[in-house]
Structure formats: structure tokens, C-alpha cells
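Assemble and predict.
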Amino acid sequence: MKLKFPILILILSLSLNLGAQEKYRILSNFKGLKFKEFAARTEKLFAIKFFYKDEWVSSLKIGDYSDCQTLSCVMDNLFKGTSLYYIIEESGNIVITDKYAIKVSVTPIVKDNNFLPPNDYAGSVENQHTEGNASVEIGNPAERNKPGNVVLSGYIRNKDTKEPVHGVTVFIQKLSLGTVSNEYGYYNLTLPRGIHFLQFSFIGMREKKINLNLYGTGELNVDMKSVLIPLKETVISAQKNVTLQRFEVGAEKINITSFKLLPTSMGESDIIKSVLLIPGVQTVGEGSAGFNVRGGSADQNLILLYGAPIYNSSHFFGFFSAVNSDLIKDVTLYKGGIPSRYGGRISSVLDIGSKEGNRKEFAGNAGISPITTHISMEGPIIKDTLTYLLTARTTYSNWIFGLIKDPALHKSRASFYDLNGKLTYDLDKNNKIDFSAYLSHDSFRFNSDTVYSYNNSILALKWRHFFSSRFFSSFSINNSFYNYNISSQYLVKEAFVLSHKINSTGLKADFNWFTGRHEINFGLDLNRYAVIPGSYQPFSDSSLVVPHTLEKGRAWEGALYIDDKFLLTSFLSANVGMRMSSFFTFGPQTVMIYNPEFSKSVSTITDTLNFRRHEITSKYAGPEFRVSLNFRITDKNSFKINYNRTRQYLHLLSNSTSISPTDTWKLSDYHVKPQIGDQVALGFYEMLFKNNFEASAEVYYKVIRNMIDFKGGTNFIMDENIEKDIVNVKGKAYGLELVLKKTEGKIRYSIGYTYSRTFIRSLSNFSEEIINSGKWFPANFDKPHDLVVTFNYLFSRRFSISSNYTWSTGRPITFPVATYNMYDDVLVHYSDRNKYRIPDYSRLDLAFKISGNLRSHKLAHPNWTFSVFNLLGRQNVYSIYFKRVGEVYTGYKLSVFGRAIPSVTFSFDF
Amino acid sequence: MKNIRQILLVSIILLFSSCITEFIPKTTEDQELLVVEGLITDKPEANTIKLSRSFHLGGFNVPKPLTGCDIRISDDLGQSFSFSETTPGTYTSDPAKFQGIIGRFYTLHVSTNVTNNNLNYESIPMELKPVPPIDSVYYEKVSIVESSNVSAGQEGCQVYLDTHDQTNQCKFFRWEYTETWEFRLPYLVPNSICWLSSNSNVINIKNTSVFEEDRINRYPLNFISNLTDRLRVKYSILVNQYSLNEDEYLYWEKLQNISEQVGGLYDVIPSAIPSNVYCLDDPNQKVLGYFSVSANSSRRIFIKDQFAGVITPYTDAACISDTVFGGGPILYLNTSVWVIINHPSPPPVYSVITRNKLCYDCTVRGTNIKPDFWEGGK
């Protein structure tokens, strides 16, 4: 209620305002001067400073205002008939605005006046940034009684780094109306004229509340301050109210400050592990690379860093994410309702937003944990214009091998590192360029004769151009490369190097246009792929291995997209979009033609087609519709419905349960069709108990066509004609996701329960391609029940405890069921695929964090995190395998974390 | 790639203090499937096809031969040759009528009798590919380093094989071997020298299509540990080399992939491996095994050498001697286990010394009939 008071004063003071400024009495006549000269001269006379844009005043000349005794009188006369407004602050700043006036309430909150001229990023009005709550007036008061809605828009920036903040919720509780800022920090709301109370909130930033007196269309730019020691937010959550406002069903945003506090397994904050806490996201086991979203396989997730895909997202076979958390600003996971600007993968998009360097001063962070160490540095090269951010991380796990007495393992080595760099350059207020680079490397040497290594690298250049305050564009070009090498010198004559490579170059143009009630996004997405499926080379001259490289795959993937977000009525909004995607593969290529009456095999080849260079060998195209509707039932709850289709042209060939390091990427081609996914999702969202609780329920149903499975026991490394081992299968998945979150207060928690099923069915008519008699069978990652509970207790600004508990059904497994004798050997026969399950999974983690000091000017801020992974020491079954000992097959179960794993991480900011 | 999987497993275990415990799954399967074990060669010998049924995992390994079936093979020239059941479940061809010819395609036909539901099975046509001779089979001493405290000087024997095909026709090889060794009892008893044979039970295959030359060098065929008495006196190994079609090679490779270790996250997902034999009447009937059509060449070597640390099963601990005192003939003496080697007379004090029969009569383990191929005297 206290907030209403300043508004009242504000309105009352309206008429008094101009008359009150008698401070600057003008004695001389400035007749005939240009405004610029006038300003310069009066600035000399008084302790005042003008803020304005040259183009607004270039045509203005001071007339004969002989009646005028005061500065304000001159300005009143001068601006008569123009769209310009001005305000004279007590401190002597005179701010001129175009098209709308700003009004401030009486003195105590003059400093809180929140206004930035549109597009003026140069920081000349820096002093005026709002510290607390503010009252602002926008538009010409004379229009206050006009009918119809007006548009409020503006930019939201981080006060300290001047980076635009993406994903800020702008919300008007009374109207239950809101929006989220886009990647440029821009937001846009259509509102009725009148007095509004706006809330700007974002995880890790201090919430900002603004009283707005809206008379006409105008802009309101806001700077938000990050919380210095980010203890406030520790729960992974879509922000308050965002869930009500977003169009997508199943979009989740994780802020870096949230997951940095989560318990760690080896002392390393890990983005993928945080993603696993989201309902609907599952993994086949601890430390396995990749994750499964709503019944999709692990290769159906598009993981974007700097806008480019990462082809192997893990270090150390899945125990660590390949992306250093130091460079992450935020992460958005789309489980459904994938915006039309993304494409190429069926199940999800994990868009990793990267930080930009600090624009004001040098800053850094370094940390050590039992296995890894990391450092990051950032700062301006040219203040406010050119900044850099560098991060590096490496492991020193080799000492563990050194401790092992076994001679075979003593010589084994494992290591990884990753490096990131980003340069951001603000050319001018309308153009911004950034260049990012990423490199990661893993290697493992086993007993000094087999060396295994893999590398990821990304280069990306992005140019953001603002055509106007409502029309943005972004152009980017990127290259992503992944390869692995396996070499063995066990036998000199057979020593080999086996490698696989994928290289993709992407060109993207995205446009973002706000017009009235519509927000229109459109653009182009073009990718070129080159894949070497496998190359088998002699290791040295004495090796008899014939150098052999499988035929290179070449393809272009092109897509055009457009979508429109608009308000249909005051309670119903829609987002309708379409992505038209296409895929072309090119020669030179040799394509085998098989007798269609038999299952494909070497003996059923009937013909060979030879395609010349640049000749199209196969082409696929199709529309992908993305539609969302958002019904606001009351101001506390909403209902959303969403349909989307996705097409995937790139597949990861994996015949093991988890993503294995020897898996290879395969392009769609003459035989391998693109995967097509259709998902329908419904969601209901409700805010409870004064908005302190957030509850949601989402259901989905999904069908995936042309999924890839394999004929039994196939090993497709260096396989010339992979299509003969591929079985075309269909997938279906459905599920219910329930979440209850408490997001306010010292104690915060969330409870998420998921019931989900995923099934696969083989479609072929040939006996060897039929799995489980052609019936639906559970996929490898079908885990029906999944419960995730997170709990945080913030004792004080310096101490916090966080904990999470996970319980889920065990994954399906195929057991041996019968044995038989052949050639004096005992062999084993298997059950139907995935007929059985491993035992249920349950784990409790705990972390305790101490921040050394709250003083912001201290040289370094130390942070200690004590973490216990698997606190209960439960021996969760990671896998069950069968080993033959003599003539008997015995089963074994393996637990990766057989006991509680404590770890300590020390890091400090400088 | 087996290696990589081991690496992963090892690294996981090392780094994350994991643990492994034995686990026998409870399954509810009740399947008895037809198992075909058939091999047709180009040798002028009787070829055999064995038919049996599979048994449950963890159950007793009692063979279940499938008797009373009608078996014949046909070739691509329209000729047909029938097999007759010689022992239960084993069907044999007449070598006078049938011998495999290189380049021909052969198809197996199986019909079960009424008690087995009168089902008809057929194989896909299989080509008989030529095979080159084995160039050499040889061995090397290998010193065994054990992490345990076993005293030094342990030696084993690694048997290697070399072969090549100048005509480049045989790209896929499979080997089987039969080991035969002489062993002697350490006592002066009538049957003290015997011979014992054992067949290979590991899949040995090689694909030479990835090599410049159709040549195999130092293929590690068999490792003889010193924990058997194979190497104590004299040892012989007969190696059979078979040519394979690519399809059959892939069958064995898949079998190898899933038969050693399965179920791990990085292991190939196990599944039933399709046979080249299928049921004509009921496509849902699964068939196990394979109908192999191969040319065959073979080679035998003998190994008579000194290997350090070769054990003997005839230790004093294993060959317990005992003396039994009694007033009369020993009742209930199990003469299949115990042998009376001395019974002084006359009564009334009746004393006997007994010994484990295994140590008294070598025919308990092997045969005292010297094999035809055995070189050298007794």
C-alpha cells in the first residue's frame, strides 16, 4: 500500500513541476542561436548539463523569448510544437526526451528516476539508474483519456556489466500480464493506459519494481543489479510468473547462480547434472554421457554453445560436462514447444548462453577440486566497448593411476582440458560483434598400447544489428568440429589408427520484429556437413594395415522459419510458427541398391550407383509446424497447449545402452531417412499462497518415426554399408510431469515427479530385422517413475545448505535366458529386448557452502563448498553384465559410486 | 573395441570407488529352441549335423538331442542328399554319396517328427568357398607374471598360426583345434600312460579383407597355461582352418561380441543372433546355431619342451593313501574311487592300503590307447 503514495504525489506535482524550477534565471537573450550553442553557453553560466540527441535538436533555433526570465521558460517555448520533452533535475542535469515526457515524484526518489533515452547506450545518463523502486511517467499526459492500448517497450541490462539480460520477467500482477525479455534484453508489452505496477525479476538479480504512469506508447529501459553473492537463488526453476507467461510448454531456464550451489559429484559444478534434475530428463546411468528428454534418445538433443552444436558434450566418458560452467550465463532447455528458430534435433534444445566479459573492470575466478582446476578471467580491453572472457579447465587425475601398483594400470593415463575465449565488441549503439572460440580435448591411454582421444572445437562469429528499436537482427557464422582417434600398437604388424570426424559450418540469420501486438521472428538457418564415418590407417610403416577411409558424407541442411507471437484476446495468446527444413546429400558417393524382397545384407546387393561430384544423391524436405496457445484462466493460473514437429537429419550410431566414445555420427542418405518427431503437450500452471508456491502439471504424447536401431550384435566400426545393419523403428512416448516449488524465503524446495513411458517397435517384414516379434518394447531409457526433490536452506548470506534426492525406476535390460551347446561350446540366448529391469535408483546429495566475506571491495572472495555425493552410500546398480567363467555364465552388478563421495572445492573471485 | 570397453570399466572402477557384486537374475523364460550345429566340408569324410534343444540359464547342462528328424541337403544343381541318424540327435551323411564341392551352394532341410510338431526348417543357400592351407603352427614360451606371490619361473605356451591365400579368395577364416596330450601317473601301476583330448571352445575368426595382403601372421590361437598338465610330457594340437562366407563370418563375430561380456553400458546391446536356418511353418519360431558350409585344411604340431612350473594333478594331497584295519574283507568299499593296492594276508589282522582311483588308473581321465597320429614310442 505504501507504493500508492508516491503515485499520488506524482500526479499532484504534475502542474507544479515546471514552475518550481526558478533556479536558473536567464538575463541575456539567446535569440538566433542553435540549440547546441545555447546549451553550451548556458552550461557555462550555470552548473547544469544537457543530455540530448543531436538529431532531435538540429533544426531548433532559439526564438525571441523576451518575456522569459527562466531557463524553463525558454525551453517551454522552444519545444512548443515539437515532440520533445525535458526535465530539469535538482542536481542540474537537464534531460531532453523525444516523444514522451518523464515525470518524477518529489525529491526523495528523484535519484531513482528511471529513464534512458531509447538506444542511448553510451552511458551518459548512468547516474540516473534506479537503485530502488521508482516511479516513472511515460507519454503525453494529454493522451491519458484516449481509448485503446499502447505499447511499452525497452531494454533490460545488467547494471554492472552492461550486458543485455535475456529472460527477465516483466510482470504486472494486477493485469496478470507479462512478458520475458529477448536475447537483446528487449521486451515489449501491450497495455491499457493508466497506472501500472511493473515487476522486473530474474534469478540472480535483485528484483525491481517500478510504478508506471502510462499515457502513451513509450520506452522504459531498466538496469538490474546482480546479487553480489548469489545465495538468494539456489533452486533450479523457471522464474516466478514466467511459467504463466511463456508460450512454450516445457521450457526450463537454469541460471548459473542456481546450479553453482548444487551438490557436486567430484567437486565440479556440472550443467548436464543440473539439467537431469528437471522433470522429463533422464539418464541411463551415473557417469554416462548424454541425457534423454521425454523419451528421446541422447542424440536427439541439440546442445548449442555460442549458437553452434557440440557433438560430444562430455569429458571423461560422461562424468563431466564438456562445457566449463565458468562461461555459462544461463541455460535454457526446451523439452517441448521448441521455438521455430531451432531445428535439426527431435527431442530437445539445450541452449547454453555464454557470458560476456565485464565491461567495467578486470575480474576473475579460480578454483580447485580433487580432480580438476579451473580459472577464468574477464575484463574490458576498451572500456565499455571491447571486452574479453577467457576460461580454462584441466584435470590432474593421473596421480590416481600413479598410485596403482598393478603394472598394467600404472601406465594408464587419463586427461582432459577445455578452453574458451570470447571477445565482444560494441561497434556502435546499433551494432555489436562477438567472436567466440571453444576447444576441448580428452585422451586416455590404457596400458600404454591403446590410446584413445577426442576433440571438440567451435568457432563462432556473431553480428547483432538493431535496425530500429523494434526490429533486431543477428547474423552468425560458426564452425563445429569433432573427431576421435583410437590407436593401438599391440601388434606391430596390425598397429592402426582408427578415426572419425564430423565438421559442420552453419550460417544463421535471425530477425526479431515487434509490431503492435505481434512479435514476429523469422530467419534462415543453413548448415554444411562433412563426415568421415571412419578411417583405418596403419600406425607405422611396419604395419600391414591397408589405409582405408570410408566414403565421406557431404550434405547441406537448409531451413527457413517464421513465427508470430500475438494476443488474440486479453486472456488468450498464441504463437504460430513454421520451419521449412530441407536436406541434400552430395556425391561423390557410391550407393548400394538392395533386393527389396530381402533384408539388406552383402549378399542381397543388386546394383551399385555411382554419383559424381556435386550430384545430389538424396534429398529430403518438409514443414515443421510449431503452435502454442496460452489461456490465462485467472491471474493465478494458466493453461497451455502446444504442438510441434521436428525433423532430424543427423544421427548418432550407437549400439550400446549409453553413448559410447566410439559412436559415430551419420548423415541421412539414400537409405537412412530423417527422423521425424511429433509432440503434443498440455500444461497447467498455478501460483499458490501469495505466489510463493508454483505448481505445474504437464502431459505429453510423442511419436518418432524413422528411429534407428540395429540388427543384433552389430559392430559398425568401419562399416562400408551401414544401412544393412540398421533397423527402422518407430518410437512413442508419453508422460506426466508434476512440479511443486517454493521459490521464496529462507527455505526453498521443489518436488518433481514424472511418470513417463517410452516404447519402440520395429516395422520391418524381414525376420532378422524384427525385434521382439514386432511388438512395442520399452526403450533403453524407459524409467516410468522418477522423483526429484531439491531442498535449500539459506542460513545467512554466507552459509547455505543445499540437497537433492533422486529416485527412479531401474532402466530396462536384456537378460540371458537360455544356454545351448554348439561345437562343444556353451552359448547363451537372450530374452526379448529390454524385458527385465535393473533395480531402482536412489541417491541423496548434500552440499554446504561458505562464502568467505561479503565485503565487495576485498581483494579476493574465497568460497568453500563441501559436498557429499550419494550421502546414504547406496550401491545403485549402474549395470548388470554377464561374464563367462569356464562353462558357466554368471551375472554381476556394478555400482559406480559404491559409497558416499565427499569433495571439497575451493574457489576465489579476484 | 573390446579393449575400449575394458578401459572404460577399469577407469570407472578406479576413479569412483565402485564395487562389483555377483548377481543372478530371476527370469521367467521357458524356451526350448531348436539348435542347429551343422558343418559341411569339402573333405571326403562323413559330415554331421547335430540337432538339440536349448536349456535354461543356470540349469544343468544336460544335452537334449532332437531325435527322429528327417534331414537332407540340396545343392544348386538340384541334387539332394539325405542324412541318417547315427546316434540320438546326430545325423550323418554317407561319404560315398556326398562330398562338398567348392563353388557349389548348399541348402539344409530339416523336418521334425510328429512329437515335435512336424515343423519344417530350411537354411539359406550357402556357398562353399575355397580355403588355403595353413602355412605353419608354432609356439613360443611366455613367462607368466602374476601379481600374487607365486614363485618366479612360471611359463606358459602361446600357440600361433600363419596362413595366406595367394589367390585372394578366402577373406574370412575360422579355426577350431583339438588338443591331445600324453600324461603319466607317478606310480607303478598297470595303466600309467594315457592320452587326453579337448576341443577348442573359443571362437577364433579373422577377417583379412582389411589387410593389403590376404595374409595372417602370428594369429594367437591358443594359450596353454601351466595350470594344467598339458605341457608336462608331450602335447599335440590339430588345427582346422575353415573358409567362411561373409554372412557366416558376421554370425560368428556377433556371437563373439555378445558371448564374452554383455550388459555393460558400453557393451553391445545383446540380442538373439539370427541363424541362417529358419522355420518355414512358423516364422516366430527362433532357431539357434548355424549351418556352416566351409572348405577345410588342417595342420598338426607336437610340443615336447620344458616349461617351468607346470603343475600335476597327481599330488600327494590329491592321491590320498589310506590304511584300513579290519577283521575281514572291507565292506562297502567304493571300488570306483578307491583301489586296494595292498592287502597282506592272512587274516585275522586284515590291513589294506587304498588310493584314489584317479591316481591309480589313468583311464579314469583319458584313454590308454595311443592315438594313431602320436609320434614316438610309449
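The helical segments of chain B are 2-15, 246-259, 357-360.
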